[in-house]
Amino acid sequence: MTEPMVSLRGVYKIFGQDGASVMDHVKNGMGKEELLAEHKHVLGLNDINVDMQAGEITVVMGLSGSGKSTLIRHLNRLIEPTAGEIIVQGEDVMQLSETGLREVRQQKMSMVFQKFALLPHKTVLQNAGMPLSVRGEDAEVCNREATKWLDRVGLAGFENHYPAQLSGGMQQRVGIARALTANTDIMLMDEAFSALDPLIRTDMQDLLLELQKELHKTIIFITHDLDEALKLADHLVILKDGYVVQQGEPQHILLNPNDPYIEDFVSDINRARVLRVRSVMTPLSDGAVPDDAHGDVDVDDTLESMIARSGGDTSHAYVVKDGDETVGTLDMTALVRALVPRVSSDDGTRNY
Fold first, then answer.
1. What contacts 24+ positions apart, CB below 8 Å, involve 118-121?
2. Does the domain spanning 274-338 belong to CATH 1.10.10.10?
3. Across-strand partners of 59?
4. Which residues touch 19 (CB under 8 Å, ≥6 apart)?
5. What pLDDT does residue 312 have?
6. What is the pLDDT of residue 149?
7. Which residues of the chain fall below pLDDT 50?
8. pLDDT value of position 236
9. Is the dihedral of CA 24, 98, 222, 42 positive or negative?
10. Where are the domains of the chain?
């Protein structure tokens, strides 16, 4: 298995006058509310262990106060951990000098902020070219690269405008172009689309996925929106009160929530729209291809599209393809079962 691009190992963050002094209480099981009440310290992160793979989108989600924005700010040490290791491309950033940390922030990581963070007195072109300007590149190089990425995010012709002349969605596109101009392997996106209107937000999600297919960046994306998380994530990490409740492949989490908190989270999701054929199919090794199959389907087709295709007929079965390769079969009865969310009964057992 290849080494993760980013790893967090036993990361704790306790806000207060002396976080280290109350670490033992946290390690012995003291929770967020109790720590605040008894010791006047706030538990931000509690024993975080997450691997973020190269070329994937890792989405960290949770409600307000769960620790997700605190977590992402640890990666470039905008926030210092109370304890733990933060490994970026095999290097512990906690051991870096001031010069080394500056190099990581300039060369290895770029960041897209929720509130855009554009400089109002500089043009769109100058804002997008800022990462290269900070590195000391000449104006020609900065402008050439910035122009290229502004065009890619749909802002060709707006280079000489100022941020105040753009809509919110356009300003966020400048933020993405700026991060792409930096040409770093890692992109940090802290609730980057949360301030946008729903339709613009959907457009930005689609743009990000389109760019990711080509660029294969390592993206760490923070959100409080489960629909957004399920749409974007290759690996999903769900936080509550500073600790990881569950992490893994999003489709697996949706079908196999391991905690009542997760069950509540996923209970109202439109499962037909989110779940893919690959999550409910029978792998080829586990079953024969049916002779009466009603055609081929793709592993990434949504269950919603399959319901429409079958006309709701649960007697249908399909051959599942991944490109030209046959990988499994889909029985519509299995699809229907997957649409029923798992819930907890009063005695704590889980039922469908």
1. 118/163, 118/171, 118/174, 118/175, 119/163, 120/162, 120/163, 120/164, 121/162
2. no
3. 221, 236
4. 12, 13, 41, 82
5. 82
6. 94
7. 345-352
8. 96
9. positive
10. 274-338
